[in-house]
Design brief:
This protein has helices spanning 11-20, 39-48, 60-73, 77-92, 113-123, 136-146, 162-174, 176-182; strands at 2-6, 25-32, 52-57, 97-99, 126-128, 147-153, 187-194. It has 204 residues and is of the alpha/beta class. The protein has a single domain (2-194), classed as HUPs (Rossmann fold, 3-Layer(aba) Sandwich), CATH 3.40.50.620. The longest helix is centred in the middle third of the chain and has 16 residues, at 77-92. The radius of gyration is 16 Å and the shape is globular.
Amino acid sequence: MEVGLLYSGGKDSTLAACLLDGLCDVTLCCGTFGVTDDHYQASEAGRRLGFETARLDLDPEVAREAVEEMVANGYPREGIQQAHEHALERAAGEWPAVADGTRRDDRAPTVDRPLAQSLEDRFGVSHLAPLAGVGRNAVDRLADAHLAVETGPSEELATGDYETELRALMRREHGQETVEAVFPEHVQSRVTGRRGRGSGADSE
């Protein structure tokens, strides 16, 4: 089965890809709203891991709407959810099955049962969520065992996820103070390879 998996280059989407590898023909979909070029970093990470990658062009108007939603609310959750659902729909138009790295305890983005069912019914696809029953602690332990990962503040560690582009667009249209007010500080991850498989990865 061919699967287009939404890929940011972080731990969650990388583990999801690894879990599907061998069961499906996985293509990593590196989405971009055209705000930054950070999706290239996700593509490079995916290729180092041995996966096929594809650029997934997203609607810039959705990014603008998501940013305005976040500014109005004063927090990012609903805007990030809006961007993720749009990306799933775009991928569903190109692959017979779509997947993502959403976890059991994610607050945003999430894919609950009604959303997954709606996506499958509207587009005639299958939706796979390999980490749907997995919590953060297990993800961290699996990543530590199998992936070489860089971590750092989200403002400093550019990745190929929606947040990077949405932050950049918000900064451009509303200023850095608004970005700092809307987005809580948190640590971001970026996968650089598999452990023991080059790309600076540690040998086990």
